[in-house]
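2024-03-11 09:14:02 DEBUG pipeline.ingest accepted 1 chain
2024-03-11 09:14:02 DEBUG pipeline.ingest length=336
2024-03-11 09:14:03 DEBUG pipeline.predict start
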Amino acid sequence: MQTSNNKPKKSFFKRFLITLAFFLLAIIVAGSLVFLGTIQPPTLPLISDEDTRLVAPERFTDEDRKELFYTFLLLGLNESINANTIMVISYDGVSGEANLVSIPRDSLVDANRRVRKINSAFPAGMIRYGGVEGGVAQMQREVMSVIGFVPDFYMVLDFDAFERIIDVVGGIEVYVPFHMRYDDPFQNLHINIPPGLHHMDGETALHFARYRRSNRGYRDITDYQRIENQQTVINATINNMLTPANILKVPEFIEIFTENVHTNLTPGNLLWFATQFNEIRGTNAISTYTVPTTGTSGAPMWYELLNGPGIVELVNRTINPFERDIELKDLNIIRH
């Protein structure tokens, strides 16, 4: 008799918990939809505002901006605070297209310093103008000399932020064509990635993205090949972010950004862009490119010489946020 009396109670309690769970889930979903509905697209920095820095060609006005078109400067710093990863990313909120253009770190720029490589802009700005903001400002000026405008937003990542983001998305799958082996005790850097398809955690993905020189008996790669590897990692990471499981981790991504990434994006901006992830179209999340060059200066500096006409064509086809075309006169390319 006792067992018989308890069964209805257990059944009722189970049904109650299920009903309560669905009720709470409905409240959370409804609340999220209302909250997301209040998120507005980011406000773009104005061309003609109180900030006297030139951020676009002088003939451009705020009315020349494309609708819902945003650009980002992504900088990846190494231990010496050189920007060894320099990328400009665009997102077109109307077409759902995203593009990424890499700038080689050894690109020759018109800078008043002994080493005129663009990756030296960040530490030079930190020293001359003070702190990270000075480094960002100097990098923005030199990026503008290459592409003709200053991207709307910037993100400065160190190695820790890079690793954490990849670990949060559950790692990435990358095919490694040959054995990557390199040891540098001065940097405490030890890379050992056999060939084949790998499910990489943050640390391994960082090693893959950093690989350039090798131990004796293994294969070096060019800086352009390393750029391609970096683009592969970025694309794989963003593709993983687009999965339903990772879209639910938006608060965690925002926490990483606010704690480990120096940026002018607000939490509200990040939330809005997170809601746009499922609008990105195409097999890969981002189409990737590298600014064209005409060759190298050779020893002793090994500058990469930029191809002005080629850059203008690429910028206007991919990342230009204006209705007007960027022209060669808008760049400051040194003809070596």
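2024-03-11 09:14:41 DEBUG pipeline.report Confidence is low (pLDDT under 50) at residues 26-36.
2024-03-11 09:14:41 DEBUG pipeline.predict end
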